[in-house]
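Entry type: protein chain
Record version: 2
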Amino acid sequence: MPFVNIRIVKQVIENDPEGIKAKVQADVTESLAQAAGIPKENVWVTFDEVDETDWFSGGQRVKEQRAET
């Protein structure tokens, strides 16, 4: 049984967290089920929402990176 854990910056999905998570999990579930040849019911997906102040990329906070764009 595949278990997929998705970590995402909380602020990226703050406008529609339930809708975005529903779409992402559906796409991931479908893709993994097809690739592995297993029933979708056997694919488990969880989300960890990480605050942008606690996520770093290239030595810089994601919050700062997002402010630059």
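Comment: The first helix runs from residue 17 to 36.
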